[in-house]
Amino acid sequence: MIANQPSVRLAHAGSLATESPLRDLEAIIRSRTPLIAVESNEEPQIVSMVRQIATRLQLKAFRWTVTEGLRAFDPCDQPQQSVFKSPEILGYIKSSAKHSLFVLLDFHPFLQDATHVRHLKDIALNYPNHYSTVVLVGYAVQVPEELRPFTAPFRLPLPTLAELRAIVIEAAADWGAENGQREVQTTNKALDLLVRNLAGLTATDARRLAVKAISDDGVITDSEMPEVMRAKYELLGRDSPLSFEYETARFSEIGGMRRLRAWLEMRKSFFVDGAQAHLDPPRGVLLLGVQGCGKSLAAKAAAGIFGVPLLRLDFGVLYNKYYGETERNLRKAFETAEIMSPCVLWMDEIEKGLAVGDGDDDGLSRRILGALLTWLSERRKPVFIVATANDITRLPPEMVRKGRFDEIFFVDLPAAENRREILSIHLSKRSLDPAQFAFDALAEATTGFSGSEIEQAIVSAMYTAHAQGRGVKQADLLAEIQQTRPLSVVMAEKVEELRVWAAGRTVACD
Ligand SMILES: Nc1ncnc2c1ncn2[C@@H]1O[C@H](COP(=O)(O)OP(=O)(O)OP(=O)(O)O)[C@@H](O)[C@H]1O
Ligand SMILES: [Mg+2]
Predict the structure, then answer these.
(1) Which among 39, 262, 300, 361 is least surrounded, fewest beta carbons within 10 Å?
(2) Which ligand is nearest to the CA of 289?
(3) Counting atoms of ligand 1 from 1, which one is nearest the CA of 421?
(4) In this structure, which ligand is nearest to the CA of 428?
(5) What are the pocket residues of ligand 1 if the criterion is a CB atom closer than 6 Å to any ligand atom?
(6) pLDDT tens-digit series, residues 226-271
(7) Residues 371-383: pLDDT tens digits?
(8) What sections of 179-221 are H helices per DSSP?
(9) Are 216 and 197 spatial neighbours (Cβ–Cβ below 8 Å)?
(10) Which ligand 1 atom is the nearest neighbour of the CA of 414?
């Protein structure tokens, strides 16, 4: 049980096998379906459901596994001969089945074999002579084309919040029983957060994470949630072009960007706590700007401000690793992001992923853009997008049209005041005392520098000083600064072009 939680005690929801999926599966069986494909890792629950349905409909019921062979649920129905091998079980169903349900567990590897497929098709075609249904259960059941017309798919719905709460309470009770009846310590807020964070997982996975959260110390706290979300991502995110970014950032590490910060802070509670006060939840921003001025850093800080996980969509991985399955995997990435919500989805350098019109990819990038735009406007879950770009000429115009993003922020080269802040941040980061430096002169000397170039000048000055066995001085910094040819000089036209485009179309982030 959970300590200091009277409301929680009352909420025990009992068995998770709720009526509705049971009724749905029964309806499929009643509708004379010869084959049912169940993709699930909740094997015990499916088996128990089939058993209940068999009793209700007065059918015989059997289960088969490659290790244990065929067994009847009711000892009176035990098959006369032993039936082990996969062709034997199908032969047995073909010759002996009458008004029965057969649950074949982990049969999917055999579906790749033409003989097995033909046996199953015979069973399906012969249904009016035996009225038996074969239920294929496995983590992933790929039904071959030949069997599709005879097969009904079935999925267990994911647990509701009330069911997830019951799972956590059950896990707490189990922990208590194993630990001398101690009570799990938590607060209402932490418990609610844990339950909400388990949403989107199957009952088995949710139970696993709940046990993990409780078992180390018998306490559920807010501070465990990042770890829970990371573990949740591991369960979902395998094989996806999304990566979980462990490092978020704080705005205190960023010089400037005051307006962006205030914008995010104002929306924080609406984003995290759902639609309050009938305001539309914030959907996302596009950060457009000069290279090295902190766009990526700001994306990380957005997740930091909201206090939610940061997922990154890597277009390079999407195109290369999943060649030929790009669109499917993009959809999967969106699904994962929605299950992980509330979260920030960071799409870095979108122009590289969406540059359309190259004409040599059979319209793939066009289709990807279409899928992305559709999802941007239709997504229902709190997934806050931070997209970054620095080349507007390669950015599809649809992307920057009004309404796609809540706001397009322009990240310009830092002004003098911001350069001072950036200098101070990066000196302190490297344990140098900012008070030892004359900021006005440094800020003046770094006119036209990006944040990244300022940082690099500090790093190089440290090397120089270190090589001479002494600390960094003002003169070292000035010397490095003077040797640097900033991008704003080298690529002056490009930067100017970007600024001209941004004026009137975007909002300054400072
Ligand atoms: N405003 C800033 N405040 C503090 N540090 C900054 C700032 N801008 C840049 N930096 C430093 O430069 C590094 C590189 O910046 P970042 O990768 O965020 O730039 P970017 O705008 O994403 O560049 P690119 O367009 O090349 O991707 C940061 O990790 C940070 O250390
Ligand atoms: Mg970047």
Answers:
(1) 262
(2) 1
(3) 3
(4) 1
(5) 254-256, 291-297, 388, 390, 414, 422, 425, 451-452, 455
(6) 889 999 998 886 677 899 998 889 999 999 999 999 999 999 988 8
(7) 999 998 888 889 9
(8) 188-197, 203-215
(9) no
(10) 1
- Cis ω before 486 (30° cut-off from 0): no
User: Of the residues 296, 349, 446, 498, which should be mutated to test ligand 1's pocket, given the most ligand atoms within 8 Å of the CB?
Assistant: 296
For residue 431, report the phi and psi dihedrals to the nearest 5 degrees.
55, 30
Q: What is the DSSP letter of 280?
A: P
State the residue for tokens 């500090």.
458
- For ligand 1, atom 4, the nearest C-alpha belongs to 254
386's tokens:
């931070």
List Cα–Cα distances, 281 to 23, 68, 133, 268, in angstroms: 36, 53, 47, 9
pLDDT digits (tens, 9 = 90+) for 403-424: 889 999 999 999 999 999 999 9
Cα 489 to ligand 2 centre (Å) = 20
Closest ligand to the CA of 430? 1
Residue 496, token pair as written in the block: 């100017």
**DSSP for 45-101?**
HHHHHHHHHHHHHT-EEEEEETTTEEEESSGGG--SS---SHHHHHHHHHHH-SSEE
Specify whether the CB–CB gap between 207 and 288 falls below 8 A: no
CA distance 152 to 397: 43
| 69-72 and 60-65 strand pairing | antiparallel
